[in-house]
Write a structure and sequence with these properties.
This protein is α+β, with helices and mostly antiparallel strands and 248 residues long. It has 2 domains: 146 residues, OB fold (Dihydrolipoamide Acetyltransferase, E2P), CATH 2.40.50.90; 94 residues, OB fold (Dihydrolipoamide Acetyltransferase, E2P). It is built from 5 helices and 14 strands. The strands form 3 sheets. The chain has a 5-stranded mixed barrel with strand order 1-2-3-6-5. It has a 5-stranded mixed beta barrel with strand order 9-10-11-13-12. It has a two-stranded antiparallel sheet with strand order 4-7. Helix 1 crosses helix 3 and helix 3 packs parallel to helix 4. The longest helix has 14 residues. The N terminus is likely disordered.
């Protein structure tokens, strides 16, 4: 797979020149590295399936993603180059970065192209979103990995928090002080925060009522935040970038 994909990876997401390099101590999971200098690196643009933690079973393809990332690191002799994001760290203190092998290929794009993770776009760390989206589309069209059996859930199926890709018919679109709210006919609402609204074509969003759309992100249980008002959807998915919403 790597020999076939590698030229495309280089063409899609080439490494900028003069990036700092680092030694990998270990691969934590399919989207996280621990470096020899003590830093943990969360790879930008990729959300790999969760490995089994705290007694829970691993999600499908979680171990495959971890093994593949380990193989890419090994092919690079344990040396990677980092392009740290505009937002340099997450709330866990991990460094947020795009990761490249010695050959200049972007490791997130390689995993996405093999169906071993989902494209995620969280502003402002979206420098590679277009090429990473193209990489995921390669896997989706070929039905590789996660896309072998569609992971897309209907909005009505959402019954827990965590990352999900959902599809549903839009019941309403509203804009208020809390941002833009796209409500499905079921118990799920999408929210675009006020600070992010400027990145979206709001006029197009307002025409989505009655249309079938696909969205991805981390679902939040609003009933844990002090109760729901009558008529409010229990589950909310924040939409962090236009790439997280497919309205076609």
């Amino acid at each position: 797979m790597s020999a076939i994909w590698l030229p495309s990876a280089l063409a899609l997401c080439p490494a900028p020149s003069s990036l700092p390099s680092a030694q990998v101590q270990r691969v934590v999971d399919g989207d996280t590295l621990r470096l020899s200098d003590g830093r943990s690196v969360r790879m930008i643009g990729l959300n790999a399936p969760e490995t089994g933690k705290k007694g829970q079973s691993a999600e499908p393809f979680a171990e495959a993603a971890k093994r593949r990332l380990q193989a890419l690191v090994d092919e690079s002799d344990g040396q990677v180059s980092l392009r740290v994001g505009e937002q340099a760290a997450d709330h866990y203190g991990r460094t947020l970065a795009n990761v490249y092998g010695r050959n200049g290929a972007n490791m997130e794009a390689q995993l996405l192209a093999e169906g071993l993770g989902y494209l995620v776009a969280v502003s402002p760390n979206v420098a590679l979103v277009d090429c990473q989206k193209a990489a995921e589309n390669t896997a989706r069209q070929a039905r590789l990995g996660l896309w072998r059996n569609s992971p897309v859930q209907s909005a009505a199926q959402i019954d827990k928090g965590g990352f999900a890709v959902v599809s549903g018919q839009v019941a309403s679109v509203q804009r208020n002080g809390g941002g833009v709210w796209i409500e499905f006919s079921d118990n799920l609402v999408l929210r675009i925060a006020p600070k992010l609204v400027g990145q979206f074509d709001v006029a197009s969003l307002e025409k989505l009522k009655g249309r079938q759309i696909e969205a991805r992100g981390w679902v939040v249980d609003r009933s844990r935040r002090g109760g729901l008002k009558p008529g409010e959807a229990r589950w909310m998915m924040p939409i962090t970038h236009p790439a997280m919403l497919n309205t076609k």
